[in-house]
Amino acid sequence: MEQTATAPAAEVTEKPQFTGQTTVGEALRIHPEAGLVLASFHLGGCSHCGINEIETLEQICMGYGVPLDALLASMNALLEE
Q1: Cα–Cα distance between 79 and 76 in angstroms, integer?
Q2: pLDDT tens digit string along 1-24?
Q3: Of 5-14, 18-27, 32-41, 56-65, minimum mean pLDDT range
């Protein structure tokens, strides 16, 4: 009986994407300009409204009244460049 060697499955490298469950720390590691996008929504730029790296994007949006879908659209636009 002849054995056929099978090629290893191609690795699929998943493109990172920002979601509501992405933490601030993860966002800052995913893209170097993520902090600028957060600042453009007035998140984390002021001394009295600091955000914690372990908070999720959804949590900071809820806490500061920022529409999550708008923030995610801007954050994910960084990955399309």
Answers
A1: 5
A2: 566 656 566 666 678 899 999 999
A3: 5-14
3-state secondary structure 3-69: CCCCCCCCCCCCCCCCCCCCEHHHHHHHCCCHHHHHHHCCCCCCHHHCCCCCCEHHHHHHHHCCCHH
Q: Please tell me the total count of domains within the chain.
A: 1
60 domain-assigned: yes
Residue 71 DSSP label: H
Model pTM? 0.78
In angstroms, the CA 20 to CA 42 distance is: 17
Residue 5: its pLDDT value, please? 59
Strand partners, 23: 56
Q: Which domain holds residue 42?
A: 24-80
